[in-house]
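question for whoever is on the cluster today: can someone run the full assembly for these? two chains, 579 residues total. i dont have access anymore since they changed the login thing
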Amino acid sequence: MTEDTAAVYDYLVIGAGPAGMAASIEASKAGLKVLVLDQEATAGGQIYRNLGQTHPQQENVLGRDYVAGKPLLAEFMACQAEYRPGVQVWHIEAHAKGFLVAALESGKSVTFVTSDLLLANGAMERPMAIAGWQKPGVMTAGAGQILLKTSALLPKQVVLAGSGPLLLLLAQQYRAAGVTILAMLDTTPLVNYWRAIPWMLAGITTPKQLLKGIWLTLVQRFKTPYVSNVSHIEILGKDKVNGVRYTVAGPLTGPKAGRVHELHCDLVMLHQGLIPQLQMARLLGCEQHWHDAKQCWQTRMFEGGKTSVSGVQVAGDNGAIGGADLARLEGRIAGLTRALKNETGASLSTRFEGLWLKSKVKQQHWARGLVDQLYQPAPWVSNPAGDTIVCRCEQVSADQVTAIAKAGCTGVNQLKTFTRAGMGACQGRQCGLNLCHLVAQAQDRPIATVEPLTLRPPLSPITLGQLAQMPSQATDSQTGI
Amino acid sequence: MTDSLFSSLLTDTPLVPVNVNGEMCHVPDGYTVAASLLYLGHRITRQHPVSDEPRAPYCHMGVCFECLVSIDGQDNQRACLQKVIPHMSIQTFTQGAL
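^ ran it for u. tokens below:
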């Protein structure tokens, strides 16, 4: 028995991004025993990654929204919550006292027991499974931004491709730093602009913000080699990227529409919006649902970030993609909700009510609706075709998935048995969503009816040696691992 | 190994010695292993265990598992999640990879 299992925490927060930090601050302020586990070496999440350790030159390039996280980070570092960085959670299960969380810390097995859990482990980029996306020289736009935040690394020259606010932001940051952007291939389908019109009209209520958004978009169009209405991007090169092929859709439909272009390059960064990282919520059995506007699965959330599983909350982008400001607000609400479980102080309740109202207003903000409609992935992105690799880990192509789905496979979990798609090291993180899309398409049914991949431990690879190091109390629990 | 596709915005970061595939190299302090490999010009970091195709770091945030390398003798480590420490030993193209 180690000391780790001896202590029972009141609140275990997974993720030290804006939501996790804010929740920990509130819960520890209320006197709860809080533990924060984060897989990264420094707090801040992806949005504020490495903040506080960045050079002024980096901060100049990254901009005001990045530096804006400093007060929250400082408040978090000063709060009473116990913060353990570099911890990779690989399993969570029900326990007599609440939940047992198993993790690796510097390669060693550790376990923690907590009465309540907050999943605040954020989002990931929507997998953009285009032909050749597995080749060395392709990375995500988020990866490009992480390299800038943590290492001040900049590409010498790059092609940016896809759709979404992060891609525009990265283009702006790269331009500010003097990076050569060879091309900005915008895959936003024209139809999305029509869909977004009602939200743009709603934006007239706060014209300053709307104009800022329009300005940002236009600047990229004029200052970078911008190609709009791009489709069917294909990464060229044998062992590594040496170019990109793409189609520019014409105004007409049919086989003659669209011209194919090729461009020489050795680095491509892709982006197609963000989706919540649902592995932990799925492992815990939290109810999930398909969100049509955001085109992704989400954990069903109730008041205060509660989920269908008692004692488990979600907050921030891990619940629904809403950005850093909303994540911070939801984090505070989640922390207060947890605190209110123990004591019903009038001041706590009033504070909760105020924040809850504010978060509802923010969630229904026109800008969120605009982003959801405008940056929905094009069908050719959601539904890869041909020999495009869908499951990178097991090297399964779109055609293989479609053939099995057409042969009457019941869903993605059975498909996993037939093709191994979703069985690799990433545990379906990179293929899960596209598998659902392909099964829905092949069987001509709504994606909401396709049950996503079942999650089983370990959530990340662990050696048998590390497993054997686990304290005995942990191995005696119900599932008997 | 080829010329790096990346360069640093900063020029005055102190360097730390690391051992990559048996060769002593110097990388800026605070870099992750994945960033170090890109900085040093390693455009390919592993061979895919199923297809034998070359692969390289993709997401840099621990979700894609493409950057798996051996770090200080421990195989299948996500290079993007660990920062370099002086004299760390990094091995790309390891056998028995996931």
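summary bc i know u wont read the tokens: The interface with chain A takes residues 5-10, 13, 28, 30-32, 35, 38-39, 43-45, 48, 50-51, 53-66, 68, 74, 76, 78, 80-83, 98 of chain B (CB under 8 Å). The beta strands of chain B are 6-8, 15-20, 23-28, 46-47, 54-55, 68-71, 74-78, 89-91.
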